[in-house]
Design a protein that fits this description.
The chain has ten helices and ten strands. With 274 residues, the chain is of the alpha/beta class. The protein has a single domain, classed as Protocatechuate 4,5-dioxygenase, Chain B (3-Layer(aba) Sandwich), CATH 3.40.830. Helix 6 packs parallel to helix 10 and helix 7 packs across helix 9.
Length: 274
Amino acid sequence: MCAMIWNWAALMPHPPIILPQVGRGRERDAAQTLDGAEALLARIAARPGGGRPDFLLIFSPHQPYAPGVLLLNSAQVLEGDLQHFGAPEPRLKLVTALEILAALATHLGAFGLPMGATDSPDLGPDHGSQVPLNILSRIMPELPPVILANPCGLSPAKALDLGRALAAFKAPGQAGGALLASGDLSHRLSPGAPSGFHPEGAVFDRELVAALKAGTGAELIARWTPDRLVDAGVCGYRPALALMGLAGEPVEVLSYEGPFGVGYAHALWQPKAS
């Protein structure tokens, strides 16, 4: 079932500094992350059709947010750049796959997933989408239609359920999709980290990477209470859980490191051929 609909699903970090036009040399301090991105691109490009899906579902913590729901963005055209990070070029212009978005909302509603809607065409505040898409554009100069959503209003258990519901989704016209789960990990890995240092940060990253490799999202949820998550300073937890729910099996981790006090991981799930 998954192999017919989902071409691939990836976890990608989103620090603007890893883009040369922003980092201006500092991106080399995240060498393992850059290598992970190249490995991810190579694996996707090797898939049938160069890995380009008919639509790309993007879970970004920096899309508009609403508590208690998966917030879906229904803006028909989305546009923006990283100008406030010093990089006005390139400017992304995306088109929303509206028919598939409508079908997806109906499907997720039948699974009891709480949802909300927004119409937010400005990509400027959302480096969570822009950074991975700038990287993917190296192998997909023409990016596919997208569906942008923020799952961070969901509980961790609901985020995992979201992924499981995606596994049963049948897109209109037998369209094939890919999931981009955008998210950095702990922001508290070292003194001077964006959210300050806390020892739980490194523990969380280690356990999330292990959960990806083992395909055990439910066990991760059981260990990480809301208070522990606050201590760890997490960002991409719910997008990663949705990916694990969709995969339902181990996910290949291509890179992990924690430069700049923040954890970055690249991971890829490729469904087995049916």
